């Protein structure tokens, strides 16, 4: 069994109020070294069998067509979660 991770982020031109709220809270909590925050989504897709190039391509297509809103979000990464695969 394998796992594929699909990371989705708001497009750069889209306002990110959640990220802005987190960015405002971090300095108050002692994390002043961060200048901005963008909040996205992470999807973990499990597959029966190995993660192949075809599985990764299908995960990217699912990310672009189903898991994200292509008007305001981009699929920024699709990769095998090798930490889970090694367990």
List the helices and strands and how they pair.
Layout: E1 2-10, H1 17-28, E2 41-47, H2 53-67, E3 73-80, H3 82-85
Antiparallel strand pairs: 1-2, 1-3
Uncertain residue ranges: none
What share of residues is helical? Answer: 25-40%
In DSSP terms, counting alpha (H) and pi (I) runs of 4 or more, how many helices? 3
Lateral strand order in the biggest sheet: 2-1-3
What's the gyration radius in Å? Answer: 16 Å
Strand content: 25-35%
H and E string: EHEHEH
Mean of all residue-level pLDDT scores: 94
Termini separation: 10 Å
Give the overall form.
elongated
Number of strands: 3
Structural class: alpha+beta
Most strands sheet: 3 strands, antiparallel
Pathway: Purine metabolism; IMP biosynthesis via de novo pathway; 5-amino-1-(5-phospho-D-ribosyl)imidazole from N(2)-formyl-N(1)-(5-phospho-D-ribosyl)glycinamide: step 1/2
Subunit structure: Part of the FGAM synthase complex composed of 1 PurL, 1 PurQ and 2 PurS subunits.
EC number: 6.3.5.3
Family: Belongs to the PurS family.
Fold and architecture overview:
It is a single chain. The chain is an alpha+beta fold. It has a domain at 2-14 and 40-85. The chain is 36% helix and 28% strand. It contains 3 helices and 3 strands. The protein has helices spanning 17-28, 53-67, 82-85, and strands at residues 2-10, 41-47, 73-80. It has a 3-stranded antiparallel sheet with strand order 2-1-3. The protein is elongated, with a radius of gyration of 16 Å. The relative contact order is 0.33. The mean pLDDT is 94.
């Amino acid at each position: 069994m394998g796992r594929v991770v699909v990371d989705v982020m708001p497009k750069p031109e889209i306002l990110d109020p959640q990220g802005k709220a987190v960015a405002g809270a971090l300095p108050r909590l002692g994390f002043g070294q961060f200048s901005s925050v963008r909040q996205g989504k992470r999807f973990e897709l499990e597959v029966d069998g190995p993660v192949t190039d075809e599985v990764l391509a299908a995960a990217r297509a699912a990310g672009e067509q189903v898991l994200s809103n292509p008007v305001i979000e981009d699929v920024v990464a699709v990769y095998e979660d090798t930490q889970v695969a090694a367990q």
